[in-house]
Amino acid sequence: MDDITSLITACLAGDRTAWNSLFREYASIAIQILHRQFPTLAPDEHNDIIQNVFSRLTQYGLRNFQGSCRNTFLAYFNTMVRNEARTYLATERLRRYAIPLERGIDDNGEDLPAYEIPDHSQRPDKAVENQEMLQLIQVALNDAPLITQQVFLMKAKGHKDREIAEILDIPMGTVAQIYSRAKDMLRSLIEEKLVGRKTRMGRS
Predict the structure, then answer these.
(1) Residues 75, 20 share a domain
(2) Lower CB density within 10 Å: C or N end of the chain?
(3) Long-range contacts, stretch 34-38, CB < 8 angstroms, 24+ apart
(4) What's the predicted TM-score (pTM) here?
(5) In Å, how far from its chain's centre is CA 134?
């Protein structure tokens, strides 16, 4: 089955031997792509990304391929692997990085302290508080569009606007707008929680 078209046709027909052949050859190629272009990824992250890539191939990737030669499919596959890795990096590492939010203003017009959710804490009370805020942010981000999640998490990781624009293939101005809206939304949620906590403490 040297002909990529015949291999793809057999895979789409449910031929398990063809699928095994495709996986054996292209999983190793995917690992090479990840090692070369995403050197900070760990082996278990490679496995997650490769599984996602082949899941996409099963769902729609092979069916949507329009080429007829191996080199064209290699380019198509390379793009799928890179896109899946970028999505993984943008959406799967929230707990590992600090997420700083700028100061806000409470109901009395006073500045609220800048709030930062670190990736770890030595104090149990702070760990609980950080966990509550982290859960709040996760819920808010889960309800946001994927592009908003990607931009916010990549900014939290330390990527510059230009890098994010290149990775997601969107204008730099769009990156800034999306991040600003996401930050405003999350700041409002945290201000509401902090003000509510302050009110409860005043009543006690």
Answers:
(1) yes
(2) C
(3) 34/81, 34/85, 37/82, 37/85, 38/85, 38/89
(4) 0.48
(5) 16
Q: For every one of its 204 residues, what pLDDT tens digit does the chain have, with 9 covering 90 and above?
A: 458 999 999 999 999 999 999 999 999 999 999 999 988 888 888 998 999 899 889 988 999 898 889 999 999 999 999 988 887 776 655 444 444 444 444 444 444 444 444 444 444 444 445 556 666 677 777 777 888 888 887 887 778 888 888 888 888 889 989 988 888 887 777 777 665 555 555 555
Q: Which of 91, 118, 152 corresponds to the end of one domain?
A: 91
- How many domains does the structure of the chain reveal? 2
Report the C-alpha gap between 157 and 165 in whole angstroms: 15
CA 145 to chain centre: 12
List, in sequence order, every beta strand (DSSP E) within the chain: 99-101, 115-117
CATH of the domain at 81: 1.10.1740.10
Buried b (16+ CB within 10 A) or exposed e, 14-26: eeeebbeebeeeb
Mark whether 71 and 125 lie in a shared domain: no
Q: Which residues contact 113 (CB under 8 A, 6 or more apart)?
A: 103
At 57, which helix (H) or strand (E)?
A: none
What is the extent of the structural domain holding 21?
A: 4-91
